[in-house]
Design a protein that fits this description.
389 residues, alpha/beta, four-stranded parallel β-sheet
Length: 389
């Protein structure tokens, strides 16, 4: 009897627990007599039939990034892209695909609907999923979080906190520090910083009323003599324009190139606040790729391993459809769950944004219910901020 051949690929921006998922899938496949094929550089590798044999690779679940490397490829921008993908699948004799990516990477699956696929979300932006109903109940989240978000959330909390981050410098030198977060369309990562207690958080879903914000920041600085602001890279002015983006330089998925919202905002504040006080100590900080680099935290590793194993088991049990394999909060722990793709027409139907349940627009901060959500992801908080074990 011939072994099943299942392909696995990772696309888009790297996140920390990808190798943990790949490793778990490989060992589960080996146990179930399945031949797992590593497709290099995402969809580009599938187009080029560029693959790796895991027996020849040396990698660890505790190391971030992806041993299979990555790319950003929109197969609709390639002549006969979907047909070329189908041809490669046939030539590689694959019977199923595990696709690990963010919204852009996963969107390609919607153009190959007649082939078994398991889609697993990974993005520090945490913007792939659904939040149903009115209250923020854990049971109402379809895809409780995306792989990589827990580790990135911990990082941004540390960056702004008084215990490990920029607050001590802001206080010592009486500075206003604007910290940039990744997040082109959604502000989940920026808002997760709420557990590090920044003074204000600016997210793409709620365009910035600059004059009102200016009043708030002057008021806070006069009272505290230091301010920390977190701003998502995709934040917008009240007129709907991005605070900083080059609309003339777009990627294959139509996203503009973001050029530094924190820097633009800090420069504008320097000009407008100088009548009030010395603005030399208004600074911007952009950790950029640091958010998604380095090793994964324990929750990301454990969740990635569960997802990798579950994906292989589904194929071993004869799955022939296309599904999302999501994270589920159940009985105070994170589990996996199947969400049928036939419920969705496009990936946009599975794109979640922040709303009034999460964000207090008048105070530029997270709601108390939103904080409860992130406490489920980053607990125990004292271990993050103080290094306790």
């Amino acid at each position: 009897m011939n072994k099943k051949r299942i392909g696995i690929l990772t696309g888009g921006g790297d996140v920390q627990p990808l190798n943990a998922l790949i490793e778990a899938a490989y060992f589960e496949a080996k146990k179930n007599n399945i031949n797992l094929i590593g497709i290099n550089k995402g969809w580009q590798g599938l187009l080029e039939k560029d693959f790796s044999k895991f027996e020849e690779l040396n990698f660890s679940s505790k190391i971030g990034g992806t041993i299979l490397k990555s790319s950003r490829v929109n197969i609709l921008r390639i002549d006969d892209g979907p047909e070329k993908i189908k041809k490669s699948i046939n030539e590689l004799n694959l019977s199923g695909l595990i696709i690990v990516g963010g919204e852009d990477t996963l969107s390609n699956s919607f153009f190959i609907t007649d082939f078994p696929q398991i889609l697993i979300t990974k993005t520090i932006d945490n913007d792939v999923g659904i939040v149903k109903g009115g209250k923020l109940l854990a049971s109402k989240f379809v895809n409780f979080f995306t792989l990589g978000h827990p580790t990135a959330a911990e990082k941004i909390i540390k960056i702004v906190s008084v215990n490990e981050g920029l607050r001590t410098t802001a206080y010592s030198h009486e500075r206003i520090i604007i910290v940039e977060s990744m997040g082109m369309q959604a502000g989940w990562l920026a808002l997760s910083s709420c557990l590090g207690n920044p003074d204000f958080i600016i997210v793409p879903e709620f365009p910035l009323d600059y004059n009102y914000f200016l009043e708030k920041i002057v008021e806070r600085y006069k009272k505290e003599r230091n301010v920390i602001v977190v701003i998502a890279e995709g934040a917008k002015w009240k007129n709907g324009n991005f605070i900083s983006a080059d609309e003339n330089e777009k990627d294959d998925f139509g996203h503009p190139k973001f050029k530094g919202a924190a820097e633009v905002l800090s420069k504008r504040l320097k000009e407008d606040i100088k009548k009030e006080f010395n603005t030399r100590n208004i600074n911007s900080v952009n950790p950029s790729y640091i958010y998604r680099s380095g090793k994964p935290n324990k929750l990301d590793i454990r969740t990635a391993q569960k997802l990798g194993k579950r994906a292989i088991k589904l194929f071993d049990n004869g799955m022939t459809s296309r599904v999302f394999l999501t994270t589920k909060y159940r009985d105070s722990r994170i589990d996996t769950n199947i969400y049928p793709l036939d419920k969705l027409k496009t990936i946009e139907n599975f794109h979640r944004f922040l709303d009034e349940r999460f964000y207090d627009e008048s105070e530029f901060t997270a709601t108390s219910e939103a904080k409860k959500y992130w406490l489920k992801i980053v607990e125990p908080l004292d271990e993050i901020l103080y290094g306790h074990k």
